[in-house]
Specification:
heterodimer; A: alpha+beta; 5-stranded mixed β-barrel; 4 helices; 6 strands; B: mainly beta; Immunoglobulin-like; 2 domains; 7-stranded antiparallel beta sheet; 5-stranded antiparallel beta sheet; 2 helices; elongated; disordered C terminus
Chain lengths: ~120, ~300
Amino acid sequence: MRARIVVGGIALVLIVGIGLFSLPSRAEPVAQGKPIVGVVVNVGDYVTGGEGKVSKQEAMDLVERGQLLGIVAGGKLYLVFHPDGTYAGKKLAKMAGFQVGVVGKVVRRYGAAAIVADLIEVIR
Amino acid sequence: MRGIGIFSIGVVLALAIAIQGCETTTGPDQVFVPQPPAALYATSIDSATIALKWDHSPDYTAAEFAGYRVRIYNPGGITMLDTLLPASWTQVQVTGLQEGTIYTCEVAGETADTIGPAKQIQWSPASRFVELTTGNPIRMYESASVFGSGVDLYNPTEGGPVNLKTSSGQDWDLGLYTRDNKLIIASPTLLKQYYPKTLPDSLRATEIAAEVYTNVNSLNDVFDSEALNAKTFAEREIDLTQYSGNIVLVVRTVDNHYAKVLVKYVNGSFLQGSEPHRYVECEVSYQKEAGVPYARTARDNNGGDQ
């Protein structure tokens, strides 16, 4: 049952994620250079009510299995993409367990948010 | 009769000494003994590989000169490598070695029937890092950035370099300061004056060698002919504005690990990226074994010149 929910959750996030980038981009203004600071989460767990917390190894395993990672900052979930539109999950995985700062452009659609990241770095 | 015998031995000894002292002399009854390379240098490529480089033997164009005999011995005297390289060669990389082990490396000229005296150097492989443990390039961010302005060159728990903010400055080996038109890489203890409120009181007294390598494309370009502890180490500020190309710093950490740090100069600047998160990018060759390979002697605290 839980597996179905997780798969459903991932599918939902994927659909929203695809939607975010297939529609004309409406970037939300963000303070110049101010990073969004949060922690890496397992999106599937987070959207199904869990905390989503993952260690570096767990995060790398998840990415290896094709599952989604995101950033939760101020109670909001963000998917993170590189400027070329590719998903930044592998990069996030190596930063799991630490506070992570992402500098870039925030894009919102239907309540879901993504960051097109110019810079992703651990802050410690 | 007995006097003639002693005289004969004396003549033979004198001849032998004459031949020994005249290495490149050739004649009908004399053996051509090639001179060693004019100089021998070494560097670490990675945790299993060292590179040797030498200046040609004065005899390398001689007809008898067959090539360079390269031998590498482990500390127990076991031969790890024994090979003849072509006379035109002046560089070789040797792999399959172990970080922290001090190897004795010899290069000698060789003819068809003689190996000449060798130049010798001791060296050890060292780990090479081009990324932080997070997978990002090794960076120190400008002072105004929320990202770290310092680096711990090797965090044993994570197995590589980590970027750290001033609030974690107790673990910095090197730090960057960029305010007030300055562009300085320095020992953390010296950076305390620039970050008086944010750097902790307990800081590492990292030492940097007086000699800064310039005109280098990569760490592989930086060879040494002697142990790194022969250099003059002190806590220093390196003013990057004085340089207009890549530089390599030789660093001795507070726990006596030696490292070489390549500071990249890209498109006319050490600072890359966009404000307020510009950064200086580095590559690191780090010897994980304290005091190796460059010195088994105790840490020299009298070598500073500043």
